[in-house]
Every structure is written in C-alpha cells, then in structure tokens.
C-alpha cells in the first residue's frame, strides 16, 4: 500500500446541513474533496457558512470555496430569502405529516428557492472542469423531505445530460448518494461514518439555537428520534 | 386593437454582443422584456455592461438586472477571465478559417469559459419563475462561431428538460432563435429589425476600440462584410 497513491478529486456541494454533512463525510472516504458553499441571502447565512467551514475542516477537505449569489435576494419569491414571506411552522401542515414526507402530491412549499440547485451545480461543474474532477456530490434527498422539484432523481438525470452536452469533455457526473434514503437512515449512516453532526445546521429560521418548529427542524428532529440518536445541536427550549 | 393588451413576459440573456443585441430586439417585438446581464470577470466587463444597458434601454426592456459572478475569476481556466491565459489572435488559426467556423472538429478554444451559459440560464430561469415569464431568450449561435459546447442545440434541449423536471410548474422554455443562423444572416436580420448594433460590443480583448484581431472581432467583421453592411463600432486602426 503506497502512501503516495493519487486519489481522484471530487467537488462536493456543502450547505452545512445534516445531509451535506453526511455526503461530504462519505465522499472523503474515496476522494480528495473540494467543497463549495453558497451564501445566497438565506436567513441563516452566517451560521450555515460556519457549519460548512467546520464540516470541510473536520472531514479533511482540500479546499472550501465560498461563493455569494446576489440573485435570490434581488428577485425574492422564497421564504428563505424574502423577508416578506414568513418561514412556516411545520405545525401549519400537521395533517400532512402522517407519511414520510411533510408534503403530499405535487405541492411545492414557500421555502422553495426558484431553481436554486442549478446555480449550485453549475458552479460545481465549472470548478470540476478546471480541477479535472469527474465527480460531483450533492446531498439531495427526495423522500422524507420538503418536496422540492430539484431534489428528485429525474432532475439529476437531466443535469447529467446537460453536463454531457455542455462541457469540454462531457465526462463529469453528479452523484446523489442519499437521494433514495430516509432521513433516519441518513442519521444512522452519519453516526456510522463519524459525520460531524455537532457542527451542522438545518434550521431555516434562526442562527444561534435551532427553532425546532420549522419544516427543516421538524424533519431533522424526527430523523434523529427514529434513528435512536441524539441530535447534538442546540434547540430553543419551548 | 386595444392598447392595454397584456403582452407575455420574457427574460432575455443580454451580453451586449451582436447576437444578443439582435436577440433582444427580436424578443421585444412580442414580449415585455426583462433583461439580465452578467459581469463574470471577463476582460471587457465594463464595456459589455454599458452595451447591455444601452441595448436594454433602446429596445425598451422593462428592466435590466445586473448580476456579478465571482466564480470564474476564482477558478480561472479561460482566456476571457484568467490573466495568465492570453486571448489568441484569430490569425493563429488562419488555416481553420476557410469554412463557416473558425474551428473544425471538436476542438474547444481557450476562450471557452467552463459551463458558463448554465450560470446565465439558471439565473434567467429563477427570475422567470418569480416573474411568471414562460420564455427565456438567449442569442446562442452554433454555426459560424467559436465551437463552444454550450452553444449547440443539444445543450438547449437538455436545459429545457432540466427546467421541466426542476421548476415549480415546469413550463418555462429557453428559445434560441439565432442558433442555426450564419453570422451574416444575423447581421441582416438585425439591420432589418433596427437592432442597435452601434452600442453592441463583441471584442474579447479591449474596451475602448475593438482589437479587430481576436476570434470574436474577426467573426463579427466577416459577418458584416458578408452581409454588405458597415459595422458601426470603432476598431483600432492597424
């Protein structure tokens, strides 16, 4: 076993949330990771940036590129970036919480940020072309999530076709290792891999202590509970 | 004929070059235009921004959104954004200039900016979702151009599939009305429509007077010559 084996490079989209935390930990087993994080005017921007930096550091990423996107604040249209639209409490949707997802059917929540993941993936692809990386990881989750259209397998298939047709060599692929997993399975995998959940952040609404009531907190808390694990981040006591 | 007929909205990607100038003029006949322009660290950033503003004003756009993308300066890899890579003179490729294009085969030039158009289109789609626009125009040209992978019809087909799978309603389409035209045909169309070529800018290398020798200048000059028209922008006298 030579110590100078060259590992392949991968670009990892790192929001700092629980899913990307596990995704980055997973990618770091087999790849030299170049992580990319985005501040796009989301309410919890500063906390998420700190989380991404800590996850990158702890998982041994080669680099963390931090990018700012002005667009979403300029155009509004999402509760995450538009102060005029409140972040809903998951209680507002209690009747829909019986199944795996907080949403049923094709209803897209007000926390949807229009076509957001395309911005993240485009940056990852551009960087991968320059780095010579052929793999991009993103911790998108379809089931057991908020029902965003850009978190479904068909979307990633389409993105891979876009890369095939629109890049110099056409040989970069987006991988979504968590997409078919339940959130509780993601927690179990993260615990097994030693993912640094203690520095991750999922809350849509607040930055020092997680609110515990937004859709993202409720999904996270339920995932840890179902996995029989303790969520190590601080929550507001209610 | 009522004067209060509501026209549909369209988002137009407006670089300020000759193709986007014609594309915006064309779109303005049938749509209320919301133009978007990008400063991405290209050498002629300031001149292009002025051109986009003037084209938007003259063609009667409702709005021009100006977005900055830091990424390309950060990652380098293109002669347009990386000071360490020279903008080549078209003379370097003279043997390849016999046909319609400056390039033959699948050679991608050093002026290729990695996966650039995906960033532009992603912003256009996000804005279109908020505006309720169902049409996006981009002045991409395949034939008679530099051979960039993200200027081919297959790329736009893939992007439209991405929109179908990854947006709230899935009903936005990217239109590329110039993609199959020769550059000289685009000049003729622009003259016919009264496109404001005098404020457009195509040069990759300089901002006050066009260099006349980079690939983009050579393609532009040849297009005007073949169309029997006079290019109204200033060129460095050699």
TrEMBL record, chains A, B:
<comment type="similarity">
    <text>Belongs to the QueC family.</text>
</comment>
<dbReference type="InterPro" id="IPR014729">
    <property type="entry name" value="Rossmann-like_a/b/a_fold"/>
</dbReference>
<keyword id="KW-0547">Nucleotide-binding</keyword>
<dbReference type="Pfam" id="PF06508">
    <property type="entry name" value="QueC"/>
</dbReference>
<comment type="pathway">
    <text>Purine metabolism; 7-cyano-7-deazaguanine biosynthesis.</text>
</comment>
<keyword id="KW-0862">Zinc</keyword>
<keyword id="KW-0067">ATP-binding</keyword>
<keyword id="KW-0479">Metal-binding</keyword>
<keyword id="KW-0436">Ligase</keyword>
<comment type="function">
    <text>Catalyzes the ATP-dependent conversion of 7-carboxy-7-deazaguanine (CDG) to 7-cyano-7-deazaguanine (preQ(0)).</text>
</comment>
<feature type="binding site">
    <location>
        <position position="211"/>
    </location>
    <ligand>
        <name>Zn(2+)</name>
    </ligand>
</feature>
<dbReference type="GO" id="GO:0005524">
    <property type="term" value="F:ATP binding"/>
</dbReference>
<protein>
    <recommendedName>
        <fullName>7-cyano-7-deazaguanine synthase</fullName>
        <ecNumber>6.3.4.20</ecNumber>
    </recommendedName>
</protein>
<feature type="binding site">
    <location>
        <position position="203"/>
    </location>
    <ligand>
        <name>Zn(2+)</name>
    </ligand>
</feature>
<dbReference type="GO" id="GO:0008270">
    <property type="term" value="F:zinc ion binding"/>
</dbReference>
<feature type="binding site">
    <location>
        <begin position="14"/>
        <end position="24"/>
    </location>
    <ligand>
        <name>ATP</name>
    </ligand>
</feature>
<feature type="binding site">
    <location>
        <position position="217"/>
    </location>
    <ligand>
        <name>Zn(2+)</name>
    </ligand>
</feature>
<dbReference type="GO" id="GO:0016879">
    <property type="term" value="F:ligase activity, forming carbon-nitrogen bonds"/>
</dbReference>
<dbReference type="InterPro" id="IPR018317">
    <property type="entry name" value="QueC"/>
</dbReference>
<keyword id="KW-0671">Queuosine biosynthesis</keyword>
<feature type="binding site">
    <location>
        <position position="214"/>
    </location>
    <ligand>
        <name>Zn(2+)</name>
    </ligand>
</feature>
<dbReference type="GO" id="GO:0008616">
    <property type="term" value="P:tRNA queuosine(34) biosynthetic process"/>
</dbReference>
